[in-house]
Each structure stands twice: as C-alpha cells, then as structure tokens.
Design brief:
- The structure is a homodimer.
- By secondary structure, chain A is mainly α.
- Chain A has helices spanning about 35-45, 45-55, 65-70, 75-85, 110-144; strands at about 60, 90-95, 105.
- Chain A has five helices and three strands.
- In chain A, strands 1-3-2 form a three-stranded antiparallel beta sheet.
- In chain A, a hairpin with a 7-residue loop joins strand 2 (about 90-95) and strand 3 (about 105).
- The structure holds a DNA duplex.
DNA sequence: CAGAATCCTGTGAGATACTG
DNA sequence: CAGTATCTCACAGGATTCTG
C-alpha cells in the first residue's frame, strides 16, 4: 500500500551514488527519503488513504459503508489501509462486540487535522479537473 | 506510478457487484472511480507527483537538479512522472536545444494552483510526523 | 547532460473462499 | 457483517547500458 519497510535500500553501488553535494543552499527543499516527514508524506500521498480520510470526514462509518462509499476499493485494500491508518493514529476503530459484528471507524483528533489538507487537494481536483482534461487531450492531439 | 490505463476493469462478476443502492443521500461523498475528479485525485495522490510539484514550487529546475533534489527517485520514474505532469498541463518542459542538452521544467499556471494544496499536505507531514510516529510506536508496543 | 531502451523483480491489488 | 487467508498476476519501478 505504502508501507514498504523492507525497502531494498538504494544500493551504494548505484550509478548516481548519493551525488553528495548540493554545495549551496540552492536546493533547500531537498529532504532525503530517510527524513521523517518524507516518510509521512509517502504514507499520506496514497490514493486509498486520501479517499478513506475524505469519506470519514463527516463522521464515523462502518466497514461496509466505507466499502460502498469508496468505489473501486477491494475489501482487502480497505482493511489494509484502515489498519495502517489505525496504526498511525489517524483513525480509531471501534468494535461493538455484537453478533453479527459491528465495527465502525472514525477520525481521531490527529486524523481530523489531516482532513483539511486532504480536502484542499480534493477541492483542487474537483475545481481543476476540466483544465487537466483539456490539457491532456490537447497534448494527445499534438502528438497524434 | 499512477497511470494504469489498462486496469483490468473491476470484473462485473465481482463478489460485491456495485452494491447498487445507497438509497438516501446518507453517503453523499461517494464518487465513483469513473468520476473525473476521482481520476484527477488518483493522479495527484502520488508520491513522486507531490515531491516534484513541491520541488518546482520555487522556480524552474533542470532534470539533474530535480533528480538530486528528490532523494530516492530513479531517472526512469522522474522522466515518467514529468511526462505525465506535462501531459496534464501541470508542468512545462523547455528544451534549450543546446549540446550538451539542457532542459528545464517549471510549473505552469495550472501547476501553480496545485502547489498550494500540495504544500499544505507537506506542511501537515512536517508538523504532525512526531505524533504519527508516537502513535505508531505506541500501537506497536501494544501489539508486541 | 537528458534521456531512451531493456531487463528483471517485488509487491500492490483483485478474485475467491472460509469463519465467528 | 466484518473480516482473514490464499492464490495469482500485472505492473510499478529499480538497475544497467547506450546515445546525440
């Protein structure tokens, strides 16, 4: 999904071996893959994560409701992503212990803080999708 | 990366066949995978996309500068993602036609509108990474 | 330098079946 | 209902080499 804990570690014998310098502060916005906030980004910048956070924005939902709300997600990915979000303290899982089982998911306080940025991205997508599509068809026409 | 044009199309014979209803407006934030803004999201919610947009935020960069600025990206993924961004009208490529070749990339006007939301997400990551890590270790300790 | 072309592998992710 | 367990495979994506 996104957690790739056993990332093969960029082999030292690579062709672009770190490329060390960056002598001046010219490229200040460099942050290494090891940088914690980069890892957080890697986690957040994920399709299903964004969609789940978005779906939970308005309140708790049950497993099945999430599955239905997020078109195209498989139960497997839903479960996996929810587990990750739970682990990262963004989503809380509440099992009511009833039978048939009833479990719901809600954003934690931390998760709520993420909802705003995510909503901004979604808003962008909704606002500018037309421009993107236009650019795309224009580009494709140009290329044949 | 994100473009998976030949996605095997969620087979109609699937076990959760659309699940049709959603009778009431209860889950208003459902948008199907076919919905355009969903597709835009699928494109945007990508690790490399976010990082490239972020890197170009402050001004044009050349290919090598981007490669160096974005730790962990391979030349292949950089090229691919740049091509996609170009196609979507978010990034403009300028080839100076010199030898040795010199090409630089900059955000288009459209791309610039995306920089803000993306920056918000990055800001979130930087601000809350600690909480996420804490939650994670707490959770992992709880589970053994 | 900025890529294109190739080869190869890990894993993201769907399909299916089983269970309390 | 809310999962878990498997099997499977396409493809994302890294490594490497080549070129104008």
């Amino acid at each position: 999904m996104t957690q790739r804990p056993t990332r093969p570690r960029p082999r030292p014998g690579s062709r672009h071996p770190a490329r060390a310098r960056l002598t001046d502060g010219h490229l200040a916005n460099v942050y290494s893959a090891a940088c914690p906030s980069r890892q957080a980004l890697d986690r957040i910048a994920d399709k299903w994560t964004v969609l789940i956070i978005g779906a939970l924005e308005r309140g708790p939902l049950r497993f099945g409701q999430l599955r239905d709300a997020i078109d195209g997600i498989s139960e497997k990915m839903l479960t996996q992503t929810l587990r990750s979000l739970e682990r990262d303290g963004l989503v809380a899982r509440q099992d009511h212990g009833t039978t048939p089982p009833q479990v719901d998911y809600r954003l934690t306080a931390l998760g709520t803080t993420l909802a705003a940025p995510v909503a901004a991205v979604r808003a962008w997508a909704e606002r500018y999708i037309v421009e993107v599509e236009d650019a795309r068809t224009a580009h494709d026409l140009g290329q044949g």
